[in-house]
Amino acid sequence: MRSTMEFDLGHHGDREVGDGLVDLAVNVRLPAPPEWLRRELELAVPLLAAYPDVRAATAAIAVRHGRAAEDVLPTAGAAEAFTLLATALRPRRVAVVHPQFTEPEAAVRAAGHPVTRVALRAEDGFTLDPTAVPEDADLVFVGNPTNPTSVLHPASAVRALGRPGRLVVVDEAFLDAIPGEPETLAGERIPGFVVLRSLTKTWGIAGLRAGYVLAEPDVVRRLRAVQPPWSVSSLAATAMAACSARAAQAEAESLAKEAVRDREFLVAGLEALGVEVAGTPRAPFVLVRVPGGERVRAELRAAGYAVRRGDTFPGLGPDWLRIAVRDEPTIRGFLATLTTALSRESAVVRAGELGGEGQ
Fold it and tell me: Domain count of the chain?
């Protein structure tokens, strides 16, 4: 495996997107917040002169997950939670299950903590093996479903990570994008477990920075102690409360079901092209492996499509690409373009083979 410095842990899908490109690189489902959420935010604008108050958001999140308010900490996106954990805790050994979202490792390293990488295997479908995590790891990060693999681990496997004296952080940023939110640990206070959630993916509010922590009260207090004052804006708090309402949850479920149909259409198209799809995708994105991935990605970009490079994720290489799920017409156009890109890559490979034979 490559060294730490060879992975750009700060690279994210938004850096792939450019003017005029169809965005298949960023895992935000909606291009803009729904109208009802925009109205809620507009109503909150006149209150911006006052300092933020997250109590209503905290109470709404607690009700939404059946937790006590003392189990909830609103954060400026789930990314802030990683920094708070890295700052508040003094772990002896940190284990990060890869490939996954790179911000946990980046935050832990920035705080000066060494990291042990636990690499899941493509040949195993990137499924979680709890026994692969070192026994002496006292802080463990795992995504569920995992970005970028789209694999949803059984709750039993995630629970099996628990040990006395260990804190397991489960990043469930994409769980609300799966119908019924299966395998979630959000609705139960489990000793030694922290669950992180994000509102970005479902509601199209990446710029608002809205997420939260669900954990035991002692953990919440420790994180709050190092959280900057008023880090969660008034508008983010408004969005948290609004998106925790029952009507919003019903809409999220409908969006999740729609995403399943679109993902199945995408996967069927990819498999028809002979493209290797990693594991069993459950989130609104898929991870694929194609020979000559860097050239294929460049071909797609030249033709107007941005996909997420995979080689910045520890455990993956340049032949891996992550593709966000979009509506069927967009997917059709992408698959047609991918067909051309793959044909050109095959021609490059054949030309190289013929050139080698002539030497």
Answer: 2
> Locate tokens 């789209």: which residue?
150
The answer to whether the CB of 219 falls within 8 A of the CB of 91 is no
Residues 6 or more apart in contact with residue 35 via CB below 8 angstroms: none
| Residue-range definition of the domain harbouring residue 91 | 35-248
Contact assessment for residue 192 and residue 181, using Cβ atoms and an 8 Å cutoff: no
pTM confidence score: 0.93
Tens-digit pLDDT profile for residues 52-77: 999 999 999 999 999 999 999 999 99
Lookup: tokens for 261: 């149909």
From residue 114, alpha-carbon distances to 139, 190, 210, 306, 314 in Å are 11, 26, 28, 34, 15
pLDDT at residue 349 is higher than 80:
no
Measured between alpha carbons, how far is 29 from 238 in angstroms, rounded to an integer?
A: 20
Q: 205 and 101 in one domain? A: yes
- Examine the domain organization and report whether 52 and 153 are in the same domain: yes
- First CA to last CA distance, the chain: 33
pLDDT digits (tens, 9 = 90+) for 100-122: 999 999 999 999 999 999 999 99
Same domain, yes or no: 160 and 21: no
Last residue of a domain, one of 190, 214, 248: 248
Q: CA-to-CA distance for 353 and 359, rounded, in angstroms?
A: 10
